[in-house]
Amino acid sequence: MSIIYFGSFVVTRQVFYKSRHSFALVNVKPLLPGHVLVCPYRVVPRVKDLSADEIADLFLTVQKVSEVIEDVYKGQSLNIAIQDGPLAGQSVPHVHCHIIPRKLDDLPNVDDVYQLLNSKDADIELSFQQLKSINTVGLSSPDLSDLERTPRTEAEMWAEAEMLQAKMSKSNL
What is the mean pLDDT of residues 130-149? Predict the structure, then answer.
């Protein structure tokens, strides 16, 4: 098994789907249940830095993963977003696409997800740093009404990744 990086972070065990140029991983600090990321293997900061093959594969992977995520988390719609550069809210300098399943009344306002994506609380790099310093036993899933959410434990992320990997392998995509 080769090591997979998201920016400078090793995320190999959080990965639940792999394609030729891309991978999907569970999120250390999901904004809503089922919030996952799709990234190219090559660590580049901007979409413009990807080759045509990488872009095609990234979006085909987003399409495949989206269908399974929507089904597993009983989403009625999806937010699919890329923060392309630091001024767009990107916290890890590695292209990544957020897939967030949505349900009626999951947030007070439908567009609140964009404010959450751009909040300090959604800073993925900070979340990975916090993950290194928390106990890996006994933490529950984060309360999404709490803006100071705690990163999930490695064990929680690994369990979700294993479940999603099984669902992806059973899908007809």
Answer: 44
Q: Token digits for 146?
A: 């709490």
Q: Is the pLDDT of residue 141 over 80?
A: no
Candidates 21, 35, 94, 96; catalytic one: 96
Q: Is the entire prediction scored with pTM above 0.85?
A: no
Structure token digits, residue 56: 């095609």
DSSP-derived secondary structure letter, 87: G
CA distance 49 to 108: 36
- The rounded percent of the chain whose pLDDT value lies above 90 is 74
- The mean pLDDT of 61-66, rounded to a whole number, is 98
CA dihedral 114, 132, 153, 3 (to 10 degrees): 90
**96 noted as active-site residue:** yes
Beta strands in the chain (DSSP E): 5-6, 9-10, 15-18, 22-26, 36-40, 77-82, 97-102
Helices (H), 49-120: 52-72, 112-117
Q: Pseudo-torsion of CA 136, 27, 109, 145, nearest 10°?
A: 0
Q: What is the mean pLDDT of residues 6-29?
A: 96
Q: Which residue, among 57, 66, 51, 55, has the nearest Cα to 19 in the 3D structure?
A: 57
